[in-house]
Design a protein that fits this description.
It contains 9 helices and 2 strands. By secondary structure, the protein is mostly helical. A hairpin with a 5-residue loop joins strand 1 and strand 2. Helix 1 runs parallel beside helix 4 and helix 7 runs antiparallel to helix 8. The protein is globular and about 60 Å long. It is a multi-pass membrane protein.
Length: 245
């Protein structure tokens, strides 16, 4: 409960408020909200809303189920709303604006990445809830994508007793949700332009964090599932991007 409160209720809601405040401050000082600010506001509003409307999926995630509530999680949750707000603050202070073509491209990439990230996370965590008999459909939470819940999904039964999902996005790549998450993080940075490294810090930090987490998860799964993990990797050979890596 404490981890849930710290990770979702405080950090993401505070980020949304800071980003919105930066957008309103830009409007007050410059008379308009730039298209760069629109991109980052839409991106972070979608992310915050996803944490709220899909809150029932969070208890089965790595952060809550496996990660200790130690220095890393406490520090991350404490700095999240301020570090993640760097882009909107940078856009406001420098009144950054991008071309119309760039605006359309970034919103398109963001939309696709968000859809993959949202539905992939939903598929995985709702599959876990289905196996435990705890899944309850939340019709009022918006948006709920139809492909976010797999009906009669295919899975691999392991000798450890767990079931590994090999359907939906999870037959495409083992960490497809991380790929989509990184794509969104890159959109956050690119909408700020290319004159400073500051907006790209989060993307670089997040990339190294996810690589480290994937390595930890691979070691843990190999120890837990043994030969079954090797069979699973043969069924789903790619980690991030199908046919590439």
């Amino acid at each position: 409960d404490l981890k849930m409160f710290a990770e979702i209720r405080i950090s993401w809601m505070l980020l949304f408020l800071i980003t919105t405040a930066n957008a309103l401050k830009q409007l007050e000082e410059y008379g308009e909200i730039s298209n760069s600010m629109i991109v980052i506001w839409v991106a972070q509003t979608l992310y915050t809303n996803a944490c709220m409307k899909g809150e029932e999926c969070i208890p089965t995630t790595w952060d809550i189920f496996h990660e200790k509530f130690g220095w890393m999680l406490i520090y991350w949750n404490s700095e999240l709303p301020f570090l993640y707000a760097l882009q909107s603050y940078y856009i406001y202070t420098n009144n950054i604006s991008i071309s119309t073509v760039g605006f359309i491209i970034l919103l398109s990439v963001l939309s696709v990445a968000y859809y993959v990230w949202d539905t992939a996370n939903s598929q995985k965590n709702r599959f876990r809830m289905q196996q435990r008999g705890t899944y309850i459909k939340r019709k009022w939470a918006y948006p709920q994508f139809e492909w976010g819940t797999l009906e009669d999904p295919k899975y691999m039964t392991t000798r450890a007793g767990s079931k590994l999902l090999v359907d939906g996005w999870w037959k495409v790549a083992r960490k497809i949700h991380y790929t989509a998450d990184l794509a969104m993080a890159l959109v956050w940075a690119v909408c700020c332009g290319y004159e400073s490294f500051i907006p790209y810090f989060y993307f670089c930090f997040f990339l190294t964090h996810l690589i480290h987490r994937v390595n930890r998860d691979t070691i843990r799964c190999k120890q837990k599932y043994g030969e079954d993990w090797d069979k699973y990797c043969e069924m789903v050979p790619y980690i991030f991007i199908p046919y590439i890596y």
